[in-house]
């Protein structure tokens, strides 16, 4: 471990014997570090304050809840919030495998079979005790807040949405929200990079926005990810493996893609400033990490 890294002593003790092999800065200003020890065992450290810290708090909550749900997710090795600085640290185990879009020893069809089966498993999780997880109502509350604080790049938003203002889109989202169920636990950001695959198994990462919701939240994200990485024609293959009898409702897909628009056109710098002076609301991670040029 590089001694120049500014990491809390409460976390450093778990990094003894590990060497830093990669580090990146997220769009929110958080820091992500990957470490390896002499046996090539990997661990992952996420840290941040402000917006990035809010995201890590949610991820820790979700991972702790999912730990006993018989699915493969990173194990929380340590979690610490420095009350004086507001810095949050989340130390995680690393799941074996590769993000689905980077797997080379399986065909696209085989990858999508595993991705669909993984989604089935996630959607079958018993959501008893899930009251602290993300919901559609919280997503809409967040959108209202960023509109009220004028944190949307309005011109770009309207160009991308047939001239409709953020307020007009938000009103529509509110009007039809009761059409959506809360029947399953959704991942919240179900894209190919967040499904880790080996030849015969799979696991899930970046689960901070999971919670009781409508399967279409995950279908919507998956459609965008498949089109971006494999081509739109492969979405039918995914649905065939998820449920051969499914009749996809394009309006429900569009609904969640409209929610994503508020993340695509969020003014991140203004958002960072706003959250420093407001503890009234927090942001779902997919609204913050999404951008139209990502690999998802």
Strand percentage lies at: 15-25%
Number of helices, where a helix is a run of at least 4 consecutive DSSP H or I residues: 11
Q: Secondary-structure element order, as H and E? A: HEEEHEEEHHHHEEEEHHHHH
What integer value in Å does the Rg equal?
19 Å
How many domains?
2
Question: What overall geometry do the principal axes of the alpha carbons give?
Answer: globular
Structural class: alpha+beta
CATH class division of the largest domain: Alpha Beta
Kindly report the spatial arrangement of strands forming the biggest sheet.
1-2-3-5-4
Largest sheet: 5 strands, antiparallel
Arithmetic mean pLDDT = 90
Query: What proportion of the residues is helical, as a percent range?
Result: 40-55%
Low-confidence stretches: 278-294
CATH architecture of the largest domain: Alpha-Beta Complex
Fill in the CATH topology of the largest domain.
Aminoglycoside 3'-phosphotransferase, Chain: A, domain 2
Distance between the termini: 31 Å
| Fourth CATH level, the homologous superfamily of the largest domain | Aminoglycoside phosphotransferase (APH), C-terminal lobe
Q: Tally the beta strands.
A: 10
What does this structure look like?
This protein has 11 helices and 10 strands. The chain folds into 2 domains: 9-93, Phosphorylase Kinase, domain 1 (2-Layer Sandwich); 98-289, Aminoglycoside 3'-phosphotransferase, Chain: A, domain 2 (Alpha-Beta Complex). The chain is of the alpha+beta class and 296 residues long. The chain has helices spanning 9-12, 51-66, 108-123, 136-148, 154-160, 166-176, 215-229, 235-242, 250-264, 268-276, 285-289, and strands at residues 19-25, 31-36, 42-48, 76-81, 88-93, 98-99, 184-186, 195-197, 202-204, 211-213. Mean pLDDT is 90; it is low at 278-294. Strand 2 and strand 3 (42-48) form a beta hairpin. The longest helix has 16 residues, at 51-66. The strands form 3 sheets. The protein has a 5-stranded antiparallel beta sheet, with helices on one face. 40% of the residues lie in helices and 16% in strands.
């Amino acid at each position: 471990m590089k001694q120049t890294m500014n990491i809390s002593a409460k976390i450093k003790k778990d990094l003894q014997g590990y060497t830093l092999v990669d580090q990146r800065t997220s769009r929110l200003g958080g820091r992500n570090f990957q470490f390896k020890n002499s046996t090539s065992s990997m661990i992952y450290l996420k840290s941040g304050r402000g917006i990035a810290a809010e995201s890590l708090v949610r991820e820790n909550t979700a991972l702790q809840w999912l730990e006993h749900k018989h699915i493969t997710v990173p194990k929380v090795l340590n979690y610490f919030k420095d009350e004086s600085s507001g810095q949050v640290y989340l130390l995680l185990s690393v799941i074996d495998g590769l993000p689905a879009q980077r797997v080379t020893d399986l065909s696209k069809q085989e990858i999508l079979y595993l991705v669909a089966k993984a989604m089935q498993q996630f959607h079958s999780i018993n959501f008893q005790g899930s009251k602290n997880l993300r919901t559609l109502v919280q997503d809409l509350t967040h959108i209202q807040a960023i509109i009220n604080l004028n944190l949307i790049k309005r011109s770009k938003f309207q160009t991308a949405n047939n001239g409709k203002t953020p307020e007009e889109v938000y009103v529509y989202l509110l009007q039809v929200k009761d059409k959506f169920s809360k029947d399953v636990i959704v991942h919240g950001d179900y894209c190919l990079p967040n499904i880790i695959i080996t030849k015969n198994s799979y696991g899930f990462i970046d689960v901070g926005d999971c919670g009781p919701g409508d399967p279409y939240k995950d279908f919507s994200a998956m459609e965008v990810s498949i089109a971006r990485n494999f081509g739109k024609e492969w979405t039918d293959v995914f649905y065939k493996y998820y449920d051969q009898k499914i009749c996809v409702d394009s309006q429900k897909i569009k609904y969640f893609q409209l929610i994503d628009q508020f993340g695509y056109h969020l003014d991140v710098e203004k958002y960072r400033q706003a959250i420093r002076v407001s503890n009234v609301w927090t942001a779902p991670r997919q609204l913050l990490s999404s951008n139209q040029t990502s690999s998802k």
